[in-house]
User: Fold this.
Amino acid sequence: MTGMLIGLAVIAVIIIAVVVMYNGLIKARTYTEESWSQIDVQLKRRNDLIPNLVNTVKGYATHEKETLSRVVQLRNQLVDQTSNPNPTTDQREKMMETSNQITDSLKSIFALSENYPDLKANQEFMKLMEELTNTENKIAYSRQLFNSSVASYNIKLQSFPSNLIAKMGNFQQVNYLQVPEEETKAPSVSFDK
Assistant:
């Protein structure tokens, strides 16, 4: 009788441990998905601001149509890419690639203000620049949060004994968002005039 009670207690402990590990994996995966959702929210916010920026700049920089068209094209491309509520890793990477191109294009538009003093003095342009800069910072923070969530989740997938539960539950590893190579290089500096 005592042996049977001990056996039942061991089985109960094992079942509880499996449930706790499984729920921990679910929680980590959910945090990863939620952190991706934060990136998506910020990308949509930026996409909503871009048409206003383009319209504001258009009036001042009429011969900069190529730069403006590029931003609009990339924005539309990103809108199409973000329409999937559950993107795959490849789709996320393409979205981040497009997002990086938008960031570079926005830098070009911000630089236009140096050539157009009237644009630089435009309050609407300044407000949009500030909002876009804040949004870019939020996107960068959201990327960091996503990568931290991915790290926690992937650690659970690879750690014993939760890795056994992960295999049984068909949990899949998630890839980190990578920083574009050109952003990791130190800028060249020249003191010559």
